[in-house]
Amino acid sequence: MPDSTGSGADSAQAALDAVQRYPREAIAIAQRVLAAGPEVGADERSTAERAVGLALRELNDLPGALRHLRRAVRVAGTPRARALARMSLGYGLANAGHTAEALRAVTAALPQLAGADAGRARMQRGVVLHYRGRYDEAVREYGLAVDIARREGDLLLEARARNNRGLLNAHRGTAGDTDDDLSRAAAAFRRLGLDLAAADTCWNLGIATGQRGDIAGALRCFATVDEEYRRLAVPRPALLLDRVELLLSVPLVDEAVVVATAAVRELRRRGMASDLAEALLARARAALLADDLDTATEAAAAARARFRRQGRRTWAVFARHVELRAAYRRGTRSAPLFLAMARTADQLDATGWRGPALTTRIEAGQVAAALGRPGRARNLLAVAARARRRGTANRRAQGWYALALSRRLDGDDAGAARALRRGLAVLDRHRVSLGATELRAHSGAYGHELAAEGLDIAVRAGAPARVLVWAERWRANALRARPARPPTDPDLVAALAELRLVSSLLEDEVLAGRPATALRGRQARLEQRIRDLARRVPGGGAVLAPPGVGALAARLGARVLVELVAHGDRIRAVLVRDGRASLHDLGQLAAAADLARRHRFALRRLVTTGDAAAARAGAVHTAAALDRLLFDPLRRRLADRALVIVPVGALHVVPWSGLPTCAGRPVTVAPSATAWLAADRRKLPTGPPVLAAGPRLPAGHDEVRRLAQTLPGARRLTGPDATAAALTAALDGAGLVHIAAHGTFRADNPQFSTLELADGPLFAHEWEAVDRPPGCVVLSACDSGLTGLRPGDEVMGFTAVLLALGTRCLIATVLPVPAEPTTALMLDLHARMRAGTGPARALADAQRAFGAVDDGPARATAAAFVCFGAG
């Protein structure tokens, strides 16, 4: 945030000096000066009013700040004091959104000031120009202020001017001396004992770090400064906007929507008009990424109206860009939209908004192509393609995307594919720089357009091997990047332990029917802290290249790989058998997703309501319909072979053995062919089996007791011994792990999915700390195999954590399951695996044995289990 203040009469100087150190104390000192009555001189009174006004600005009370700053102008006795008051008033007016009046006030003050005072006025004028979007002029004013400060030996003025110049250059993405300005400003503030100003400058360093694409570094910086703000007890609601910007850069869309909405509410409450307009724009941008086009349009229009009233025309252009993008996303392809987008792209470029300008120009090019104007499209895309050489990873990738689109217009599909591969390689390198699983998973959103374009080229060419590679280039990329081993973080360990305790207390209160509002709030705060801590993990590792048909065939043997692919509104399949790949059109993607949803509902109904004729008929009907859509075009090639299925979208949670084609057949499900191949190549560790049972599940304890007879030498964790720490330690190097415990899947954040143990829930987050992953894991808990899907078919939850760690195989449920039939199925499964049968075959045989009994709920229970990874 730009900061500013001024000098004052000697008798009120103490109050003015305390503004940024201790704003509340500054108000108290100034009020004592003002309470002294007529004996206080006019200039001294003006300085005290300035101190109160500037301190209220630090505390985000803008209406109060403006009242005192206007009074400071009125009561000043000399031209110099009046000019200093006008200078401070200009800053307050700019914050309130009255930028034209602010510029007049500061400009009027300049002729009356000399020396360091003139330097402060120059800096203040830079602040107002900064707010108005006149960035080049603002940088010049900041530079003049730095020069004057150095000539006058005013370290405080130099620090403030450097902070403001560094922040402006960070937002504009200008490399230059941004970090040098900010680092020198922070050091100067510390030397002067201005802790709050130093904290603000360190926050700005976080902004600069995020603008360079170092998300983890920015998060670490923000977290450190957050603690300092809490220590100083000074609110900074406008900083929510910087957090939204960082969240959108990942993009963590859902969280960005929540934070942007909170920022709008808080800034409106505090009357911070300038920041409120920016918050509305942030809300519009977050809604656009969330495909909430109505909210995006409404919020962007409201922001644009406010910016225009405030004289902030460059910001109004940014808001217009969001409105136009929402229209484009709705499918509008018209000449007026094209002209507006092309004009807005030029305006954005002229004012330094290079990222939005790039996106708008690419989409304007696509509109031009759709309208039959290839020449205009090529011109726009040629300008956009220049971005591939500089800027953040996303911006460079967009530049390569623009080049690919241009080459496709010229009929050069091979050249387009090369450009798309270059763009995706940029994003791969960026993904590796993100250490946290959550950040890697969400970053898949940026590759969607590039991979979809490459996939379209391959599909239209009828080249199944190339379709497979393009599908793999975007699918489950977080699993293609070898995980960054998180360092032992005592703060994270402590936060997870506290969350475990709070979650247990919360469940006790809920079960007892007592209100638990305070505990829910504490749980939410702890989860946010854990997310913040986990996101700071530095990146590293390498990216696995997508395998070709030959590499897959060498491991498949007699098995058949079926990789499902979304192509526009169609679902297609690449089938690999005996070293050859074929491409098949299966039908409408929406129809497949709808049938999958109805099939899950029918099986869940059978499990929960019993073997009613209607429930059984519904399950049979939906299974047959989904089976026909997915497998009829492939049936001749499948024969009776074992399958490796790579689903797409909603099909990740299909209970596959409930479909006629898969019933009794070994089926392994993988997030991607790359992940399957990596898992299939792993050797199983040789550690002893581990059997664990959670509380409130008597059948689970019986299950573990009986399994121990099948698996001699197994380590048992039951009763009070089945703690989160004990189980996590036991996972290390175990050949086989079986856990019978209640499970909860968290769709909002799958990393907080849990298994209930003796001392509370074990979170998916915690398994990332295991050094040597177990070979095969069986989870008989309800919904333990469910995954959260993010753009790029990125899976999150226990499945993703275990496969990323290096677990070869996971058998888990995608539906709720009753205890008693589950125990019988698990005993049969483990007996077959103990006899040497592979996990996928053992599960299929156990499920077929269950299916031989004419019992609908038992069949549904068996179908709920899926073999993930490489069985």
TrEMBL record:
Pfam families: CHAT. This is CHAT domain-containing tetratricopeptide repeat protein. The lineage of its organism: Bacteria, Bacillati, Actinomycetota, Actinomycetes, Micromonosporales. InterPro entries: CHAT_dom, TPR-like_helical_dom_sf, TPR_rpt. SMART domains: TPR. It comes from Micromonospora robiginosa. Residues 622-850 form the CHAT domain.
